[in-house]
Design a protein that fits this description.
Rossmann fold, 10 strands, five-stranded parallel beta sheet, 11 helices, about 45% helix, 2 domains, alpha/beta, single chain, about 270 residues
Length: about 270
């Protein structure tokens, strides 16, 4: 992004590519004709990160060598791991295979060939933006849950289980959790007890010592369920704990009961 005006007009769609060629310009023009603002950021990884909260749909246009997109795609993958985003990839069969090989866990919502059906693409983008808008409206009505776990696969699984009924965010480290909670509210935090570097208990103590986060309800996630281990977890006086082996039904029931009890105990 080259100037402040461009920063201000960024809409809900971000276009990522190593060059703003004919296809990129064609996609931008078609979306604009449909009233959808699309911002081309090239390979600017900082822009991808800085505007993650303002962007709902990412369109990636691949070229023969994806190495030029590496830092940008790494930033995008980290965002998609934590937040619900729509990622659309346009490329040849070979280019898409290279992307899958380099980023096998990148969550791609839709794949298109280079001879892209512009009408179908714009319709998909429009529907995705409408769903995102409805989701934003739901946030004001749904409870906010933050998942803190260094295993992104497990955290994404929990988010998938809960997101139909709650607004769910996730981070993969204690420091990210503290940064998130200082800027955002949460009605419940699921905190992994056995994280490396900064452990769950350490994160718990830091959150409870911060004036802005001391009252946030924290429930530990733990993989060990023997009596001694549970007593050790509960000695810190969290708001509860749940085993990582819990099923989807168990977790949903736990959260439902948690908020019900919280409602009855609030002054």
């Amino acid at each position: 992004m080259s100037n402040d005006n461009e920063l201000n007009i960024i809409g809900n769609v971000m276009l990522i590519s190593t060059q703003e060629g004919v296809l990129s310009r064609g996609v931008k023009r078609k979306l604009k004709d449909c009233g959808i603002e699309c911002c081309f950021v090239g390979t600017d990884a900082d822009a991808v990160e800085d505007f993650r909260d303002k962007t709902d749909v990412y369109i990636i246009i691949l070229n023969e060598n994806i190495s030029g997109l590496r830092s940008c795609l790494t930033s995008l993958k980290n965002i998609v791991d934590r937040m619900d985003k729509v990622v659309i990839v346009i490329g040849s069969k070979f280019e898409k295979a290279e992307l899958r090989k380099a980023y096998p866990t990148l969550l791609v919502s839709a794949w298109y060939d280079k001879e892209v059906d512009m009408k179908g693409l714009t319709r998909y983008v429009d529907e995705s933006l409408k769903k995102s808008a409805l989701s934003e409206m739901d946030k004001t009505m749904k409870k906010n849950i933050l998942i803190v776990d260094d295993d992104p696969s497990y955290a994404r699984m929990i988010r998938t289980w809960l997101k139909e009924y709650y607004h769910v965010s996730l981070v993969t480290s204690g420091m990210q959790a503290i940064k998130y909670l200082l800027a955002n509210s949460a009605d419940l935090v699921f905190l992994d007890y056995d994280m490396p570097v900064t452990t769950g208990p350490q994160v718990f103590e830091m959150l409870k010592s911060e004036p802005g986060t001391e009252d946030v309800p924290i429930v530990f996630l733990t993989g060990i369920g023997d009596k001694e281990s549970v007593m050790q977890v509960m000695s810190l006086k969290p708001d509860g704990y749940i085993l990582k082996t819990a099923t989807r039904e168990d977790l949903l029931e736990y959260v439902k009961d948690f908020f019900k009890k919280q409602m009855y105990t609030e002054p």
